[in-house]
Every structure is written in C-alpha cells, then in structure tokens.
Amino acid sequence: MMFASLFLLILAGLANAGMDLIQFRWNNSWAEARAKKQDAWGKFLRQWVSPDAWRNKYRVPAVFRPVFKTWMVWVTDAWHFCQMLMFTAYELLAALWLAPQFTGHQVADLALAVLAMKAVRGGTFELLFLSTIYVPAMSDFWKFIRTVAYTHGHRASQAMLVLGFIGAALCAALIPGVWGDIGAIAFMLVAVFGFVRIMIWSSREKFSGGFGPEDDDT
C-alpha cells in the first residue's frame, strides 16, 4: 500500500510538471527546438505537445466534438493527457485508502470508485463553468435548463452522468443484496438514457445552426 501510494504521488507530480512545462516553459526548451525539425518526431511535438495543441479538440469532426471536448479530451493533446494522469493518480490513491466494497472484486471496486470520482469531479467542473456563464443572465430557471439542454448538451449530459454514478454508488454501498444491484443498474440506465437523449438534441441543434458558442474548457 505504501509503495503504491508513493508511486502514485510521484506520477501525479511528474504529470503536473509536464503540464507546467508545456504551458510555461515551452519557449527555448529542448522540445521547442526539436519541434522545429521537419520530421515525424518534430511534427508530433508540434501537433500534440506544443502549447497550442489544446486546440486539437476543435479540429475533430463536429459530430464527435462534444466527446473530445469533455470525456476524451485527454487524447487530443499532451497537456490534457498529463492532467488526466495527475487526476487519475490522485483518484486511484484515494480509492486505495477508501477500499470500497461494491462488487467484492478489488480491481472492479477500484475501477468503479475511480470512475465515480471522475464523474463527480468532472461534472462539478462543468456545472461551475456553466454557472459562471449562464446563471447571472438567466432569471427563468426553466429557460436556463432549456438553454443548457439544447445548446450545451454535452455538458448537461455530464451532469446527468454524475447523478447516475452517485445514485449507483449509493445503491451499491448502502442497499445490500440484489436490490442494491438493481438500484445501481437502474440509475446507470437513467444516466445513459439521458446522455444519449441530450447528445441527440445537441447534434440536432449543431446541424441546424442553433448550437451555442464554442467554449474553452482547458
């Protein structure tokens, strides 16, 4: 346990250093000098590692953009990849010490705990980001909900996934036996259904020209 904890803390520190190196120390670094060379490695550094690589999430096809701007943003550039490593290291560290008992299988329990923490953390970030944009300008609560659902479906879907994960985790942890499993499955089905529905609305608005303004969730 102690060795694993130390390893995860070191991994988080290295990932955090990578983020800062990309954002603040790119200029005059060996990576910048190497990126200027016109070969495969230089192209890779320019496209995936450089400080401007965060824009890659806007270069994917529009239909996939909601996914690559949120849950899969870590595959689009090195900064977000390092961020994912740092968060995952901390979440796995917390899961190791919490020792959750969802299924009775350690690997599955750790994976579920990490996914639940990612959903809570990511959903909280998205909700706070949305509130700073829309809540001060919205006096009508239902108009706010409609705006979120139709113009930022990918973010609203994250909120629904958070509720689904929390409900599923609570059912699995607090309700013993088969009823806890049934409740957890029901919450996950609700979350998946809401996710699919809101993504469909989001895609319709995108193709009809009514999708909201692009945002930067780096």
Number of E-state strands: 0
Mean pLDDT: 77
Radius of gyration: 20 Å
User: What structural class results from the helix and strand content?
Assistant: mainly alpha
Overall structural domain count: 2
Task: State the end-to-end distance.
Answer: 33 Å
Largest sheet: none
- By DSSP (H or I, 4+ residues per run), the number of helices equals 9
Description:
The chain is mainly α and 218 residues long. The chain folds into 2 domains: 1-98, no CATH class; 107-218. Helix content is 72%, strand content 0%. The chain has helices at 2-24, 30-35, 40-49, 65-68, 78-98, 106-134, 141-151, 153-174, 177-208. The longest helix has 32 residues, at 177-208. It is flat, with a radius of gyration of 20 Å. The protein starts with a helix and ends in a 10-residue tail after the last helix. Mean pLDDT is 77; it is low at 207-218.
